Amino acid sequence: EAGVAQSPRYKIIEKRQSVAFWCNPISGHATLYWYQQILGQGPKLLIQFQNNGVVDDSQLPKDRFSAERLKGVDSTLKIQPAKLEDSAVYLCATGDSYEQYFGPGTRLTVT
Amino acid sequence: AQSVTQLDSQVPVFEEAPVELRCNYSSSVSVYLFWYVQYPNQGLQLLLKYLSGSTLVKGINGFEAEFNKSQTSFHLRKPSVHISDTAEYFCAVSGINTGGFKTIFGAGTRLFVKA
Hints:
- The complex is a heterodimer of chains A (111) and B (115).
- Chain A contains no helices and 11 strands.
- Chain A is mainly β and 111 residues long.
- Chain A has one domain: Immunoglobulin-like (Sandwich), CATH 2.60.40.10.
- In chain A, strands 2, 4, 5, 6, 9, 10 and 11 form a 7-stranded mixed beta sheet that branches. In chain A, strands 1-3-8-7 form a 4-stranded antiparallel beta sheet, with no helix packed on it.
- In chain A, strand 4 (31-37) and strand 5 (44-50) form a beta hairpin.
- Chain A binds chain B through residues 4, 40-45, 48, 55-56, 58, 91, 93, 98-105, 107, and chain B through 4, 32, 34, 36, 41-46, 49, 51, 90, 92, 94, 99-103, 105-108.
């Protein structure tokens, strides 16, 4: 079974620029999560989708972050404009019940 | 709402020694408990989970954890560690809240196995 795919793996941008991350879930998984993992911390949920509907986006900074999941499959997370404090690893995970399967993450560095 | 506290940020241990990584949680609802491992530059991988039933849970790579409801703990143990166990370990708790099914992760414990 193929795992969760994410791209790019690494991204370096300057502050105030925009960036987008892509996630392709495990086939058949209805639930998709985006997490932000700052160095030295555990993952923090940004947004959770059930199929193509948003279940929880209470911790998503909506003034600069947006996410969508078209047709309930792939998902993109966008930051516009980026700030220095957005430097982190962005993890995508998908699940079919209580268990989550994580992708390798995208390491974002904002300079 | 739930919260998770991993009591040790770093745990150095010699190869073949036993190890325990501690995790305490708080929740006003019934919870499910998980331990994940993260190797450098990789995503998280599930080690083991407690959903119900036996409080002693066995996972991959020789790890096990014990759910203690009275002490609200879910400590991870391995009787003999290998160099390859060097990684970051995250405890997580999931439960039903007003906003739906939520998972909260601890801050992580870095296990460093020395030769």
